[in-house]
Amino acid sequence: MSQENKLDFGSVQVHEKVIAELICSSIADIDGIQLAKKTARDHIFGFFGQEKFPGININVDGDGEISIKAKVFVRYGVNIPDVARQAQDAIKDAIDKTMGTHLKDININVLGIEKGES
Amino acid sequence: MSFLKRVVVLLYVTLAMFVGWFFLLSSFDLEIVRNTINIFYIIYSDESMKFSAGILAGIFLIINFIFYRIIFEGRRKEGFIAFDNPDGRVSVSLSALEDLIKRVITRLSEVKEVKSGMVVSKKGLKIKIKLIITSEVSIPEVTSRVQDLIKQKIQDTIGMDEAVEVEIYVGKILSEYSPEKSLKEKPATEESQETGVPFQGYRA
What we know:
The structure holds 2 protein chains of 2 kinds. Chain A is 35% helix and 34% strand. By secondary structure, chain A is α+β, with helices and mostly antiparallel strands. By secondary structure, chain B is an alpha+beta fold. Chain B has a 3-stranded mixed β-sheet, covered by helices on one side. In chain B, helix 1 (3-28) packs across helix 2 and helix 2 crosses helix 3. The longest helix of chain B has 30 residues, at 47-76. The N and C termini of chain B lie far apart (89 Å).
């Protein structure tokens, strides 16, 4: 799956992997939140050659609008709405700055609280 | 339905069809049963075939276990509490909230063990807590503190405005006395007595 932009001289396609990497790096900069690690399911899919970014789902609809779903873990003691908002803003800024594309939805799915003390 | 679940369903439908057809045909023709028994007899009598069948059975069991874990994990993470931000939806898994509650409660010295469950309804969030506490504590006081702590933590963490109902069940009261603890404490007191007068035999 890829995002396509039409220019005067041809089209530019951006692979899903690039968007996923942008999301990874923008979330990594935020304190108190991290993307979900690979599950048994991801390892099995990886084994059969279907490499997936753990914790990131990217959907491009018919109109070329991108929806992102990020599965994350948060640190104990952080305010989830605040940290989720920060993550949404960071992802939005990173995609906007790099690709100049408007995102339809950035859904954050908090799966758990990180191990370890606050 | 995900790809993996489809594979599992296909596998089990094929297996069920195979077993169904086998019994259906065997009710008309006993020859199939005899042939199947012969195949099993050949496997049983040949050492290498037995070994191969064992490996195949092992592989099937492992695949079954992996599928079970994947499906079970998927089901466990189904419950969410969601709220909308301008950029999209934020969903918090109930298991994450359970983790949070366990961490908050286990910090209390009076509480030895916690088990929790959650139900989300239109009325709000209902949290069921099962506690094991130490003896010589006031149960109403401890439970009231636990309820306040949970409500406060849920409000602080997810900023939930809906009602949070905390139901507590005290399952066991543990005795303060622990034989292991008293044995560990004994040598420490002997040591402190020995080191109490360090220069007993000293003469200038």
